[in-house]
Design a protein that fits this description.
alpha/beta, 4-stranded parallel beta sheet, 4 strands, about 40% helix
C-alpha cells in the first residue's frame, strides 16, 4: 500500500468535512493516508512544544510518504510549505482545488 500524506488547512467545519470525505476516497483507492489533523500534538496549543512536535511529525510524514495530496482551496502558508518541501524531495504532488481562485504557478 502506498503512503500518502495530505497537506491542507483544517480550521473550520467546511474544511474538515471536505478533508474527511477525501480521506475516505483516498483510503478506498488503496492508499495508506496520513492526515495531519489526526496527529495533532497534545501539548498546549501554540506552545513551543506543540509547534515543534507538529513540525517534526509533518516533516517525518512527508519524508516517509510516496506522494503528497494537497488541498489548496484556502492557500495557507503551511500547505504551501508542504508542497515546496515535497517537491524538494522529488515526491509526486497532487494539488486539489475546488475554489475559483487561481493557483500560483510556482505551486
Amino acid at each position: 500500500m502506498n503512503e500518502c500524506i495530505f497537506g491542507w488547512t483544517f480550521f473550520n467545519s467546511e474544511q474538515i468535512d471536505l478533508i474527511e470525505k477525501l480521506e475516505i476516497i483516498l483510503f478506498n483507492k488503496g492508499l495508506n493516508v496520513f492526515s495531519p489533523r489526526k496527529y495533532k500534538s497534545k501539548f498546549p496549543y501554540g506552545s513551543y512544544q506543540w509547534q515543534n512536535q507538529n513540525f517534526v511529525t509533518d516533516v517525518n510524514a512527508i519524508q516517509y510518504s510516496d506522494i503528497l495530496f494537497a488541498v489548496f482551496n484556502d492557500q495557507d502558508s503551511v500547505t504551501m510549505w508542504e508542497v515546496g518541501y515535497s517537491w524538494s524531495l522529488r515526491k509526486p504532488i497532487i494539488i486539489f482545488n475546488t475554489k475559483e481562485k487561481v493557483v500560483n504557478l510556482l505551486v
